[in-house]
Design goal:
4 helices; globular; six-stranded antiparallel β-sheet; alpha+beta
């Protein structure tokens, strides 16, 4: 199991590239202090925090019960592009924000939830995205950054994530919510368009 985790970390590290420095002083401080790295494909910054020593069995496979990371969006990298995860993914706002979460469920529903501190406006401090959903995140234009802690259960593995989508996704979710236009959906897919 340890060698599988090491292999997964190597895969993630191979995907990491250098991103532009943030002009927001606190965002740049977080990148440096937390030793965050650019996340290729999804975009934004991440730092691996660890995983549970407890194991769970899913589809005949033993996986750590959970893994956790720091995740950061900045004005220069404001979008976490569309991706699908097998794991439940719980996001907790630590600093900054707000951030819009676009969640696409297997049954065809689409929802938009805002992670933020204005609870009176309906924002939430914690958002739980169920496994087997597609999601994308968008930092609000007035926000300098957003730092989150993410807990994935069972733990993240490289073979249980898909980054990007194509025209089938756009057709399926167009009109699933009032904001779900073809233009918005393509923007959430971003550079990860699949033919």
């Amino acid at each position: 199991m340890r060698s599988a985790l090491f292999a997964a970390v190597l895969v993630v590290t191979a995907l990491v590239q250098t991103a532009p420095a943030s002009p927001h002083p606190r965002a740049q401080e977080l990148v440096e202090t937390l030793r965050m790295e650019f996340l290729e494909g999804e975009s934004g910054y991440f730092a691996f925090l660890g995983q549970s020593p407890q194991l769970v069995t899913q589809e005949g496979r033993e996986l750590p019960a959970q893994s956790r990371i720091y995740y950061l969006l900045t004005q220069e990298l404001p979008t976490n592009f569309l991706h699908w995860l097998a794991s439940d993914d719980t996001h907790i706002l630590l600093e900054g924000g707000p951030v819009d979460y676009f969640i696409f469920h297997p049954d065809g529903r689409a929802e938009k939830i805002t992670l933020g501190r204005d609870l009176a406006a309906g924002q939430q401090l914690v958002i739980a995205v169920p496994g087997n959903c597609w999601k994308a995140l968008q930092l609000h234009p007035e926000a300098g950054y957003a730092l989150m802690a993410n807990v994935l259960s069972p733990a993240w593995t490289p073979d249980r994530v898909t980054i990007g989508a194509g025209e089938d996704f756009v057709r399926r979710f167009t009109g699933a919510a009032d904001w779900a236009t073809p233009e918005t959906l393509r923007g959430l897919i971003g550079p990860n368009w699949q033919k």
